[in-house]
């Protein structure tokens, strides 16, 4: 593997509702520009204290199930010590402890080597901040 490094930051609007947003196509588009068919590593990072990156199945209900599970584990109520923002916003600051703000994925022949049903998904439960950055970095 060479030591070629490329990075790009994308602006993403997630909206005011919690979301599991599939960003796989954006990752592939980035790799088409920079990987040139090479092998390497793609790092996907969301530089926010209230969002995460998951590699999960989408479209068959798993993304909705993940959000439902997070609602159960992290209810939007007044139990949280972190109290600025909307009611229950403290839970959003705990989210990255469960869904890390990054994923590093293998790239083979210029494409992410995902499993058949896997997608790269931005998880955002914070309706207070509908504008996000997504940093994509390729080393290959």
TrEMBL record:
PANTHER family: UNCHARACTERIZED PROTEIN YJBQ-RELATED (PTHR30615), UPF0047 PROTEIN C4A8.02C (PTHR30615:SF8). Belongs to the UPF0047 family. Transmembrane segments: none annotated. InterPro entries: UPF0047_YjbQ-like, YjbQ-like_sf. This is YjbQ family protein. Signal peptide: none annotated.
